Amino acid sequence: MDFIITLLILIVILGIIIFGHEFGHFIVAKKCGVYVDEFALGMGPVLWKYKPKNSETTYTLRAFPVGGFVSMAEESSPELKLKKSQILENKNTFQKLAVLLMGIVMNFVLAIVLFFISGLFFGKPVSSTEIGAIVDKSPAYTEGLEVGDKILEINGVKTYNWDDIILEISAKKLQAIYEFKVLKADGKTQVYNIVPKVEQTKDGEKRSFGVGSSPVKYEKGFVKAVEYGFEGFASNINTIFKIIGSLFTGKVSIDNLSGPIGIFSIIDNLKSQGLQALIYITAYLSINVGVINLIPIPVFDGGRVLLVIIETFTRKRTNIKVENILNYSGFGLMILLMIYVAFNDIIRLIG
Length: 351
Prior knowledge:
alpha+beta; 4-stranded antiparallel beta sheet
């Protein structure tokens, strides 16, 4: 029963995120007069479909809740007998970019709205880099760190919140020594060189420094909720870009990535923490989907955007064969990555 509840929560969360993304494409395509044949949630076999009277669009719900699509007319189709103005390829550059980018924009808007809703009901969380707890006889304790110290930098990287600290000490590849620059209670700064305690667990390598965050405070009110909507978005998108940058530089291992199986495990752990935690993870995943779709490879919206920009400057349509090769290559690479990530997720679950 617990498994089913977690699975239903995951489906709802993915459904909200996918709907937001695809609705962005859909509504702008409609506004621009592009023919839309199908609006689908999910992939694979059709479970349910509905076509309103006098509507060109069929709305479908498909078996696998891991994606969705908006089927638009991109080339002339003799069987549909479409006007040139109904084909996406014949729209101006601004309209094409608007259709392609609005899915990403809607993911970001959805995250802002979710953070706002969380702030409205639970308050705006206010945290800092102040150490709230030190584990006795831990590396941090041994080196002299104290409760109340504010962590300013780790290994030369500035830290603005506890997420930044977690990224530096847990997500990035293991370092022999971690340099903590802290602000002491007397206003002076001091540097500590800390060697973490490392042990192997069933979930992989675990490092411990012995520092804990200070309690999160909550500020309530409509204005605070609005602030949290934008600040929560800004903070999380900044963290995601840091992680992506660290992946490209090799500072964060690809093994740290999670797919649907890993997300299932995260939600299974979070659901006991209540609605606030589930709203947060939905907003965070929505930002992830938006950012990933910005990547300029053909399988993502960013790749399509790049082709439109190139065509605008060259004034030439991209060769269809070349575009198909790029699309299939990008799709193939994504499938391989998904298989690799899923394999790591399974190993972590059964290890």
